[in-house]
Amino acid sequence: MKTIVFFLLVAAAAADKVPSDDHLAAILQNEQHTPNSEGAHSFDFETENGINFHVSGSQGATGGANSIGDWSYPLPDGSLAEVKFVANENGYQPESSLLPVAPAFPHPIPDFVLRQIEFAEQQRAAEARRGSYEN
Fold first, then answer.
1. Which residues pair with 42 in a beta bridge?
2. How confident is the model at residue 2 (pLDDT cuts 50, 70, 90)?
3. Kind and range of the H or E element at 82?
């Protein structure tokens, strides 16, 4: 009985998330160019509610696909959410004012700490030199 109640609750929650006709948007543009012999490809689409997605790319030097592109969609306040990206051997690299930025370091590093770090580096270098002479 508990299982039936659980599945009824899940079904009710899922039904609440099903988009109505009010949330559907017609596709205005949909162009796809599958990879050619050199691996070049592209994909573009646009919907009537302002969603845009553009990607183009080619095969990378290590065999993976390298792509560049952008996507955007309108926000409830009327502004436009925009993301530009590069995806290659170095991973996915998005650029957007929407992405969080790490805060600046909260305070300058004190001089005595910088001197201690420099002293430790000098000791490591001296130890490395001694180790190379012993071999």
1. 33, 56
2. very low
3. strand 80-88
Q: How far is 67 from 87, CA to CA, in rounded Å?
A: 5
- Total-model pTM: 0.56
Contacts of residue 131, defined as CB under 8 A and 6 or more positions apart, other chains included, come to none
Query: Distance (Å, rounded) from C-alpha 104 to C-alpha 3?
Result: 51
Exposure b/e, 41-62, CB count within 10 A at least 16 = b: bbbebbbeeebbbbbebbbeee
Q: Which residue has the tokens 């030199």?
A: 129
Rounded CA separation 16/28 (Å): 28
- Say if residue 39 is exposed, middle or buried (CB neighbours under 10 Å; 0-12, 13-18, 19+): middle
Residues with Cβ within 8 Å of residue 56, at least 6 apart in sequence: 40, 41, 42, 43, 67, 68, 69
Residues 56-92 have pLDDT tens digits of: 988 887 777 788 999 999 999 999 999 999 988 888 8
